[in-house]
Model the fold of this input.
Amino acid sequence: DIQMTQSPSSLSASVGDRVTITCRASQGINNSLAWYQQKPGKVPQLLIFAASTLQSGVPSRFSGSGSGTDFTLTISSLQPEDVATYYCQKYNSAPFTFGPGTKVDIK
Amino acid sequence: QVLLVESGGGVVQPGGSLRLSCTASGFTFSTYGMHWVRQAPGKGLEWVAAISYDGSNKYCADSLKGRFTISRDDSKNTLYLQMKSLRLEDTAVYYCAKVVRSSGWSSPFDYWGQGTLVTVSS
Done:
């Protein structure tokens, strides 16, 4: 099975900072990669799919890139409401594995 | 609007069984693949199982095969997860989720239920 890893596992940044999270698949998954945001005590929400397509309603400060095995999620200007854990997920085929998550908070 | 409501969670002893339900509304349930995802307390998301829109294809995480079974009843707009031989490590919030694209399951999840808590404890 394909394994998903994320780095860093956590980060602390200031409001307005550019934040980048990396997700790596152990084998190529084309662009079948989604990013989810889970705020504390809340249900996960889809941010990005097909590696770089922004889900409707998601602020434009979020962006995604990558293909194959290496992907990134970027928050161009971190806002207080972005405090959350971010997960990547492969969905090209079963099993639809999630990455371990990256916890983002405000410095 | 799309609504997914899980039920059936609770406290169960190790070795016990439980059936979770997810009742869907606001979309044509019979045309969408559906998934179960769980999250142990303080831990990350773990994909559990998937079922195709017509129920002809099912897939369960390798670590759960033989104990968990996913099914659906389109006449009731309901997704199920039958869990048996439950272990302490199955304690988690269980979410059902709908895929973005109809007629497939290899698609990200655009709607999630609020989750139902399963606690395995003696």
